[in-house]
Design a protein that fits this description.
globular; five-stranded antiparallel sheet; 21% strand; alpha+beta; six-stranded mixed sheet
Length: 320
């Protein structure tokens, strides 16, 4: 098991002030970025993103990603339909120092994607409207726009623990099924919606549900993620890798300075967030938790229930 979202320093410097990709954060903070619910995330895995990537999101879709390769080359990536809008731009890797000279082309690409989305069927527009706004608004407000006094800072989205091979992943999934007493057909979640740090220095694992989402399913997801991340934290692997990524984002200006940092021995705190009506929501959620098996209830003893508005702003936080 591993979790490492830090990227090559050369790519991290590129998005910082004066870097060849500094315009990305200008876009995120612009009126257009606010309108598109834009946010930027660092990505890394042991495949195509082994040196890391910077990914721009609008809502829950990504119009542009910068993947670092050997020799300080950057491969642009996106959904196939977005690539088709600017085929020549995606044809071959670019030197990382060449990116500044391609800013105008890259901004033009984003404008073409904007028009494509505006003219697309409702199924594609769902990535940038309605429920997608809640998650992206949450990441913007408590990530890039974190302020002192906020209940947490969000440092990563769609966080996923990696494994050395499919066999190890399958074995880990089987252990979680057994521990949570889930059936063989139950889907084990792979990606955590948001990863954050609380003012106490503890790690927050946040599952974000839409207004129609199942609280029962959210409980299973929260418990499964808690098992995975707690294993890594107990092995002493998780804290430093998260702090390294956070430090990179702070230095690059992706996350504000002064935000909470992980403590020396952070606890792992599960959270479920959703845009719900205010009347009786904590009681109904706690009733659903009370109907779960003993092990999920035990695991979620520190669960925090978070009420959002439709734009992702935190309205209320309750402990179980």
């Amino acid at each position: 098991m591993y979790f490492d979202r830090s990227i090559d320093d050369a790519l991290a410097r590129a998005i910082g002030a004066g870097g060849s990709l500094s315009w990305l954060m200008d876009h995120v903070r612009s009126d257009e970025g606010r309108k598109r619910h834009a946010h930027v995330q660092f990505r890394r895995d042991r495949g195509a993103r082994r040196y890391g990537s910077i990914q721009l999101y609008w809502g829950r879709t990504s119009p542009l990603e910068f993947r670092l390769r050997r020799g300080r080359q950057v491969l642009l990536s996106a959904d196939r339909s977005y690539k088709a809008a600017s085929a020549q731009l995606f044809a071959e890797p670019l030197g990382i120092d060449q990116l500044a000279a391609r800013e105008e082309e890259l901004r033009a690409h984003l404008e073409r994607v904007r028009k494509l989305l505006a003219e697309s069927p409702q199924r594609r527009q769902a990535f940038v409207k309605h429920e997608a706004v809640c998650h992206a608004g949450l990441m913007r407000r408590y990530g890039h726009c974190w302020r002192l006094g906020d209940p947490l800072v969000l440092i990563d989205s769609e966080a996923q623990i990696g494994y050395d091979g499919r066999g190890r992943r399958a074995a880990a999934d089987a252990e979680i099924r057994q521990q949570l007493r889930l059936g063989d057909l139950a889907t084990i979640p792979r990606k955590l919606d948001a990863l954050g740090v609380l003012p106490t220095g503890d790690l927050a694992l946040m599952e974000v549900k839409d207004a129609k989402g199942s609280i029962e399913r959210a409980i299973v997801q929260a418990a499964a993620h808690l098992v995975r991340f707690s294993h890594l934290m107990a092995r002493g692997i998780l804290r430093d890798s998260i702090q390294t990524m956070t430090d990179q984002k702070i230095t690059a200006g992706v996350v504000p300075r002064g935000c909470p940092r992980l403590g020396a021995a952070p606890r792992v705190v599960p959270c479920i967030a959703a845009p719900v009506a205010p009347a009786g929501w904590p009681e109904s959620w706690n009733q659903a938790i009370g109907k779960c098996d003993l092990e999920p209830r035990r695991l979620l003893s520190r669960l925090r229930l978070i009420r959002l508005d439709s734009g992702g702003r935190i309205l209320d936080v309750r402990s179980r």
